[in-house]
Every structure is written in C-alpha cells, then in structure tokens.
Amino acid sequence: MSDITRKPASTYSDGELARVTESGLLRGGLVALEETLRRQDETIERMRAFSDRLAAELSSALQAVRSQADYIEELCAAGWDVLPVLEGGWKGAFPIPEGHPVAELRRILEENR
Question: CA spacing 20 to 30 A to 99: which of 24, 39, 60, 85?
C-alpha cells in the first residue's frame, strides 16, 4: 500500500484510488494538511501581533522624540543656548550636567533606543 502513496494521484487506477480512499490514506493526508494549515495560520497571527506591537513601540518612541524636540524648541524660544550643549555633550566634549534639559533628552532617547 505504501507504493500507492508515492504515485501522483492522476496515475491511480480506479481500483487503487478506491483502496487508498477506503484505507484512510487520503483522509490521513487531509488531516495532516489541515493541521499544517492551522499551524501556518497561527504563525501568521503571531507574526501580525508581533508586527502590531513593534509598530506601536516605534510610534511611541517617535512620539517621545517629537515631544523632546518640541521641548528643545521651547527652550530655544525662551532664550536657552541649547545647541552648544547638544553638540558638545553628544560628542562627549564635556559632560552634560545632571538635571539639564539636554541630559533628560539624552536619557529618554537612550531608553527608547
């Protein structure tokens, strides 16, 4: 009977096809196919959920960066000289004092990296 399962379906004689159907080989193949499709659907759903979570995290990180950019813009508008601190601090030329708005921005950006 195992010889029958290795042949293409179109080569079965009527008698062989009846034997395969009666023996449950066809039914077993369908059950295996259904199980494979079910696992594939579950994998696709997990991938979609992961993609949705990642999109939400990226959106949140982008919003945090936008918020901090707005904050820096407000500081500049209020007369703070933020650029030298940004340039020097980011390049490591000097430490950014703790509590300075740029230090807070850097901390948030590093957390969201």
Answer: 60
